[in-house]
Amino acid sequence: MHSFILGALAILNGLAQGHIVITYPAWRGNNLIVNGDFPFGMQWSYPCGGISPTQNRTAWPLDGSGAVAFQPGWFRGHASNLVYINLGLGEQPSNYSMIMVPVFQINAPTENPYPGTVCLTQVSLPKGVKPKKGDLASIQIVQAQRHGAALYSCADIIFTDDLTKVPPVTGANCFNSTDIDVHNINIVKDSETVPGVEQYSY
Ligand SMILES: *[C@@H]1O[C@H](CO)[C@@H](O)[C@H](O)[C@H]1NC(C)=O
Ligand SMILES: *[C@@H]1O[C@H](CO)[C@@H](O)[C@H](O)[C@H]1NC(C)=O
Ligand SMILES: *[C@@H]1O[C@H](CO)[C@@H](O)[C@H](O)[C@H]1NC(C)=O
């Protein structure tokens, strides 16, 4: 990872802008928007790209792993970026400090906008998180750009023990596009500690 950061600094040129669309679970809404309230674009706004929690919650398996799918290639400048997936608990999470998937790197073939999806099929809950049926939470995806700024989007979930309520994860909504490389993925398993990554808060 260290050598990647040095490498990324070495090839840094010009302004790189990324943007993510979360496709599973359903995201809070379209925040690919620039307006008077968000002159730099909504998605740069911590913690969830300018959109508050919604009523549109996707059922998430109580016992742990669900899928997270997103399209990292909206707008220019996504060829290389870092992605983080975090969890916030409650209807209005007070923080998104709980790591679901430690930082990983995405490399795409071009700085121009590109189609394509990354899907992690088995994203488990952070260590020590033991929700009850009906508990609410939000999943945050952070996409850090080469210049250091980050883009934020969230999806709201509700924990269920009834797997028939969980929208099916299929080859149509959960797949990896072959031209997007995903590196250093290290999904947190409830039973294991992740070397070099600690639970921390801001
Ligand atoms: C709510 O989520 C569903 C997918 O679960 C999506 O199809 C729909 O567009 C969402 N509604 C709103 C208002 O975002
Ligand atoms: C973050 O939220 C969790 C769940 O609500 C809570 O247990 C934890 O203390 C919070 N951390 C901080 C730094 O506020
Ligand atoms: C996509 O790639 C990641 C990283 O290699 C992997 O963890 C995940 O399972 C893949 N998704 C699918 C649907 O194969």
UniProtKB/TrEMBL annotation:
<keyword id="KW-0325">Glycoprotein</keyword>
<dbReference type="GO" id="GO:0005886">
    <property type="term" value="C:plasma membrane"/>
</dbReference>
<keyword id="KW-0732">Signal</keyword>
<protein>
    <recommendedName>
        <fullName>Copper acquisition factor BIM1-like domain-containing protein</fullName>
    </recommendedName>
</protein>
<feature type="signal peptide">
    <location>
        <begin position="1"/>
        <end position="18"/>
    </location>
</feature>
<dbReference type="GO" id="GO:0098552">
    <property type="term" value="C:side of membrane"/>
</dbReference>
<feature type="domain" description="Copper acquisition factor BIM1-like">
    <location>
        <begin position="17"/>
        <end position="179"/>
    </location>
</feature>
<dbReference type="InterPro" id="IPR046936">
    <property type="entry name" value="BIM1-like"/>
</dbReference>
<dbReference type="InterPro" id="IPR046530">
    <property type="entry name" value="BIM1-like_dom"/>
</dbReference>
<keyword id="KW-0449">Lipoprotein</keyword>
<keyword id="KW-0336">GPI-anchor</keyword>
<keyword id="KW-1003">Cell membrane</keyword>
<keyword id="KW-0472">Membrane</keyword>
<dbReference type="Pfam" id="PF20238">
    <property type="entry name" value="BIM1-like_dom"/>
</dbReference>
